[in-house]
Structures are given as structure tokens and as C-alpha cells.
């Protein structure tokens, strides 16, 4: 895949970029290693000062960087601004909390005595250069949620961003440079996917994090495993959105539309499978479908646009094939289902029901504004339907019954359970999945410790 900015609203190539040469890759790896040796000794106060400066610059740049994201991957510009604001918030959160999250820990005194020590400390030390392989769908946020904790922990970052968002990738490198971080603290590597293994195997790279497709995750995990390097993987999801009879059905239907089509439906944590109790199925379906029909599809640079183009032509083709397969196998289309002709990679908001396990869309992630509806008879069937997926990133549950909440929290196979609300990431809460959605956690204290050397310091007499 060429490294290029291609406007998905019209398919026009705006700019092509040359991949880094082997010599330049080597120079950047050497710089990362050299910078880490000194940056790792910097204080939390100094790192926090730099990160807050980066957040302030991002606030100033919100409009311009939002338009870069929208141009490169089609995100409605209102959502792009919100993404930039969220990134600045996360940087400030880690600047405020990192020292506390990584403070030395002292085990229980009785255990210290039992070990024969006078004192024992558990200390969190940085690992070194970390390679981040990031996707295009949230081109700023996916990077910042790695970079902010990694930099505050004393690591340095190497970004291999998706090849269709090079402008955003280069902006990030420039942002940290302008904020005053030492050269080499955060570097963008404009390289193709074929060069990732060479970088990951380099002994100066100590760990890797990837957000992306399952095949990409398998590839990075395989190489990192062979090289015995730590990885964190977030590989997508097909999140259930369960609605039970005690729920506020009107609100559940209204929020369901937002939960499905945020970022034009191109979100790992978007609700994708709507599992509704038979007693409220018709009422929910009516409200949800009408909400999907009312969405405005159009130019992502226009303020009133709800649904922009999909980020890539192949992505639209993949989504369309899932819908065609479902319809040919007996699914019913309640709205959408046929893309309009014309420039750009648009696909209409689509609702499918009568979906069965034989259909591809039942088990594959639909990365776009396509929702599947399932009717269930009771709590047991709802849990079984929700877990009937190879993914387990997040889940949404709508019920006012405390017993049902307890059951869902206990039995749903997912990294998060959101009750009477839609899934959303926040810097204070751990984020990650189960099953084929990946492993490890981002954000919160769990995320910042993923790339630390957890060191036991034992003091004898």
C-alpha cells in the first residue's frame, strides 16, 4: 500500500510520500536508543511539563489537525475536533497522575520480614524504545493513548502509522518536537508494513503495541514472540448491545444509533450486534431504524454531516460483501443496504435483521455503519448470543434489573461492560479486550505499567 493522502470523499490523491530508506531507519533507531539513555533519568515533573505543553499546542492546533484527519480518512470534522480535544485531555491526565501511578510500592511488612529483608520496594522502570503500529480510524487518539503514558513512564516512542494517514503521523512527531521533548523521544517512521518486522526485531526496540486487524496482530505478536518482546494488542470487536424489557427503550434506541455510527461506524468499540428481548424488540427496532434513516450522509467537512465516507475503497467493498452475503442468505434489510453511485467511498446507514449463524456478518466485524438485530427470548439467550463471537472487546447492557446486571457483568466475555450507556474510552479506565480482541490494557494505571520493567528491590542487613 503506498504511503499517501487520498481524500475518501472523492478518491483523489493529494500527496504521495517516500518511505524511509534503510539508512534513515537506522539513524532513527540509533537516535531513539541514545535519547532513551538520558530521557529515562528525567523527572516526572519535567516529563509532565513537556506533556502539558504538547496538550496546549494541540488545543491551539485543533481546527487545522481536525481538517487533516478529515481529509485523510473521512471523519466528520465535528468528530475530528472532539478527537483532538480528547487527546489533549488524556495528555493532561497522565501529566497529573503518572508520578502517583508509578510510585514505588512497599509490600506488607510481614512479608518483608518473612523474606529476611530489612526493606523491599517494587519500582516501575521504563523499558526503552517502544514501537507503536497504529490504525487510521482514530489517527490521533490511538497514538496519544499509547504515547502519553509511554512518555510519562520514561520510554520513547517509534510510530508506524497506517499508510493512509501520513499527514497526521507527521503532525504528531512535530507536536512533540515543538513541545520541547528531546529529539528522539517520539519519531514517526514512514515505512510500509513490510518493514515492520525489521524494526521490531531490532534489539534496540524493547516492546510493541498494535491496534488494528487480527491478521496484523498475529503477525506482530509472532515476530515479537520469536524475539521475546512484550506486546499489547487491540484487534477490534463486534460488540453486543443488549436491551432488556426494563430498559428505557426510547433512550436505548436513541443512544444505539450513536453507538453504531460513531466515526461512520469505523470503530472497534462501536456497538455492532443489537440483541433485543422479544418483549421490546418491535419498539426498539422501530426507534432504532428511524434514527438510522434520519442520519445525514455527506461531505465530512460540512458541520451537519453525521456519516462521512468510509476511509478506503477496499473497506467499503468488504462491508458491501458482508451485507450482500447476509441478504442472499435470508437477512432482511430494514434500511440502507445499497450504496449510492458517485464519487467517494460512501455507504448508507444499514439495519439488518433475521441474521443467522451461517452468515459471514454473524461472526465477522462489520467496519462501517451496518447494524445487525437479534431477537432473544430471555436472559440466558441474551448472554449466549452476546458471547457467540470470536471477539470480546466491550459490551453494552440496557436494563434496570440489578439481578440482570450482576449476571451480565459475571458472564459476558468482554473487556468492558457498560450498563445503560454506550462504550467510550477514558484515560482513567483500563481499555482492552478478551478472546480474539487482543490482550493487555491501555489507559489508566494498568496501561502505563504495561511498558515498565517491574523491579523488585530487596535490601538486606
Automatic annotation (TrEMBL):
Residue span, Aldehyde dehydrogenase domain: 3-457
PROSITE patterns assigned to the protein according to its UniProt record, in alphabetical order: ALDEHYDE_DEHYDR_CYS
Domain of life: Bacteria
Gene3D superfamilies attached to this UniProt entry: Aldehyde Dehydrogenase, Chain A, domain 1, Aldehyde Dehydrogenase, Chain A, domain 2
InterPro entries: Ald_DH/histidinol_DH, Ald_DH_C, Ald_DH_CS_CYS, Ald_DH_N, Aldehyde_DH_dom, ALDH_GabD1-like, GABD/Sad-like
Pfam families the record matches: Aldedh (PF00171)
Keywords of this entry: NADP, Oxidoreductase
GO molecular function, one term: aldehyde dehydrogenase [NAD(P)+] activity
SUPFAM superfamilies per UniProt: ALDH-like
Family under the similarity heading: Belongs to the aldehyde dehydrogenase family.
Family matches, as PANTHER family: SUCCINATE SEMIALDEHYDE DEHYDROGENASE [NAD(P)+] SAD (PTHR43217)
Cited NCBIfam families: PRK09406.1
Protein name as catalogued: NADP-dependent succinic semialdehyde dehydrogenase
Organism from which the protein derives: Streptomyces acidicola
Amino acid at each position: 500500500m503506498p504511503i499517501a493522502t487520498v481524500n475518501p470523499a472523492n478518491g483523489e490523491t493529494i500527496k504521495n510520500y517516500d518511505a524511509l530508506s534503510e539508512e534513515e531507519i537506522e539513524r532513527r533507531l540509533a537516535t531513539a536508543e541514545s535519547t532513551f539513555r538520558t530521557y529515562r533519568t528525567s523527572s516526572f515533573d519535567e516529563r509532565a511539563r513537556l506533556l502539558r505543553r504538547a496538550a496546549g499546542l494541540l488545543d491551539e492546533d485543533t481546527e487545522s489537525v481536525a481538517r487533516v484527519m478529515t481529509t485523510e480518512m473521512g471523519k466528520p470534522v465535528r468528530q475530528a475536533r472532539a478527537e483532538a480535544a480528547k487527546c489533549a485531555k488524556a495528555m493532561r491526565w497522565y501529566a497529573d497522575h503518572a508520578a502517583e501511578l508509578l510510585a514505588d510500592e512497599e509490600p506488607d511488612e510481614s512479608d518483608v520480614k518473612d523474606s529476611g529483608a530489612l526493606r523491599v520496594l517494587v519500582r516501575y522502570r521504563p523499558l526503552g524504545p517502544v514501537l507503536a503500529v497504529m490504525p487510521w480510524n482514530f489517527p490521533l487518539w490511538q497514538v496519544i493513548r499509547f504515547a502519553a503514558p509511554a512518555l510519562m513512564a520514561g520510554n520513547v516512542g517509534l510510530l508506524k502509522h497506517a499508510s493512509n494517514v501520513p499527514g497526521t503521523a507527521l503532525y504528531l512527531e512535530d507536536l512533540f518536537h515543538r513541545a520541547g521533548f528531546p529529539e528522539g523521544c517520539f519519531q514517526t517512521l514512514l515505512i510500509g508494513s513490510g518493514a515492520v518486522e525489521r524494526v521490531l526485531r531490532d534489539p534496540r526496540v524493547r516492546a510493541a503495541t498494535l491496534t488494528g486487524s487480527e491478521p496484523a496482530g498475529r503477525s506482530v505478536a509472532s515476530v515479537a514472540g520469536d524475539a521475546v518482546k512484550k506486546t499489547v494488542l487491540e484487534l477490534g470487536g463486534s460488540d453486543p448491545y443488549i436491551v432488556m424489557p426494563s430498559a428505557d427503550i426510547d433512550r436505548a434506541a436513541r443512544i444505539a444509533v450513536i453507538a453504531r455510527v460513531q466515526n461512520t461506524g469505523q470503530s472497534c468499540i462501536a456497538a455492532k450486534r443489537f440483541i433485543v428481548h422479544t418483549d421490546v424488540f418491535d419498539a426498539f427496532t422501530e426507534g432504532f431504524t428511524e434514527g438510522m434513516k434520519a442520519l445525514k450522509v455527506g461531505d465530512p467537512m460540512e458541520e451537519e454531516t453525521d456519516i462521512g465516507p468510509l476511509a478506503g475503497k477496499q473497506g467499503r467493498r468488504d462491508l458491501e460483501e458482508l451485507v450482500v452475503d447476509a441478504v442472499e442468505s435470508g437477512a432482511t434489510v430494514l434500511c440502507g443496504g445499497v450504496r449510492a453511485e458517485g464519487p467517494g467511498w460512501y455507504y448508507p446507514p444499514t439495519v439488518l435483521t433475521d441474521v443467522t449463524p451461517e452468515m459471514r456478518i454473524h461472526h465477522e466485524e462489520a467496519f462501517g455503519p451496518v447494524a445487525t438485530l437479534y431477537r432473544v427470548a430471555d436472559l440466558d439467550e441474551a448472554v449466549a448470543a452476546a458471547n457467540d463471537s470470536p471477539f470480546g472487546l466491550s459490551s453494552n447492557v440496557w436494563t434496570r434489573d440489578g439481578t440482570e446486571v450482576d449476571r451480565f457483568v459475571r458472564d459476558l466475555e468482554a473487556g468492558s461492560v457498560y450498563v445503560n450507556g454506550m462504550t467510550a474510552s477514558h484515560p482513567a479506565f483500563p481499555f482492552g479486550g478478551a478472546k480474539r480482541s487482543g490482550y493487555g490494557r491501555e489507559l489508566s494505571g494498568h496501561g502505563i505499567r504495561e511498558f515498565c520493567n517491574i523491579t523488585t528491590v530487596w535490601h538486606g542487613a
